[in-house]
Amino acid sequence: MNITNGAKNKFNNPFMSLKHKNFRYYWIGMCVSLIGTWMQNIAQPWLAYTLTNSPFLLSLIGILQFTPMLILSLFAGVIIDKSSKKKILIFTQSASLIITLILAILVWTGKIQYWHILVMATALGIVNTIDMPSRQSMVIELVGKEDLMNGIALNSMAFNLARIIGPAIAGLVMGYAGIAVCFFVNAISFAAVVISLFFIKLKPVEKKPKNNTNVLEEIKDGLKYIYHKDSLLYTVVVLAIVGTFAPNFNVLVPVFAKEILKQNEAGFGILMSFMGLGSFLGAMFIATLSKSGPQKFVIYIVPLIVGIALIITGYTNEYLVTGMLLSITGFFFITFTSSANSTLQLNSSNEYRGRVMSIYTLVFSGTTPFGNLYAGLFAEHFNARVGFVACGAIIIMLMIPLFIYKRIRKVIS
């Protein structure tokens, strides 16, 4: 009886957050939208690499797309803590629809040039700087604190289910109907989220009144809040390491698929679906354990496993083996990021959550320009194999001393 009760307490229904009507509306809309997003995530780097045949110029798109997050995330956090997240998301999703539609028309008419992709990527980056932390910090208003970790995991499941379906569809669509169709589908899919938001009524959350109206002072206040909470600070530092050097697949995989594995568009899309499958299973794993709360083991050890998986991927020659290793990498990467997200939100008070999640966006996505540049330079001057190995090796090199420091500090204290 005790064993049975223990199992019930440890494992739970991975879809339990869907009992909340508001979250159901939001989640269904996101599922539709994310398939379109992943179709574009596959079409855009393939288009850019086809136009330039340069891994470095390919990495430059990622750099410009994520640089706004690096510069503006701290300001976005203050805006989110003061504003309605629902209204923010209606604006950001509508803006993304318009930007993507312009890009689709340029590709469809044959007028697309490399610089067009750079401009549109930058515009989407600016929009996502507000959109991403708003979506992350709104989950608690949709499901409450008790189901927060499960809600975060379900969001990750939706993202990675789309990562399975979207790339496979994109590969076939690019091969038979043309790249432009992928962009048109994504533009239309943003409407699904906008429509779902009109049916949502957010749960009120209590916030302590603040007299501070100076934006820079509020940013400083949020940074001090993180610095003085060990659980937040350590998670943010590890997230910065993993977020910078692990998710450079948009730079490395298309080059690896084309130059090493000799694959076409469909082969590239299916490779990314392999990774999506692993990521989906990782999110499902976290969802079933959400009642137990975030596990410290995942924050401390899993980044090392991600680094090792990236290194091994760089040494593969077989298409199926590469796909399996990308699945393993995806599984552990999402296991880590979902746990880090939950750790930050569950240890943050309501009045600071927007700023904490803006830091999450900053260190997870805002550092992507550095990671893309790092991976792109290795792929450009050597090859994609070296790019994978270099990304995995630096994660391990940075995590080991950090882990040792954490253990020593724990013993001393």
TrEMBL record:
InterPro entries: MFS_dom, MFS_trans_sf, TM_effector
Primary location group: membrane
Major facilitator superfamily (MFS) profile domain location: 22-409
Transmembrane segments: 25-43, 55-76, 88-108, 114-131, 152-170, 176-200, 232-256, 268-290, 297-315, 321-344, 356-374, 386-405
Keywords from the UniProt entry: Cell membrane, Membrane, Transmembrane, Transmembrane helix, Transport
Keyword Transport (UniProt): yes
Superkingdom of origin organism: Bacteria
Keyword match Transmembrane: yes
Membrane topology, as annotated: Multi-pass membrane protein
CDD domains linked to this entry: MFS_MefA_like
Location in or out of the cell: Cell membrane
PANTHER family reported in the protein's UniProt record: INTEGRAL MEMBRANE EFFLUX PROTEIN-RELATED, STAPHYLOFERRIN A TRANSPORTER
Official protein name in the record: Enterobactin exporter EntS
Organism: Sporomusa silvacetica DSM 10669
Gene field: entS_1
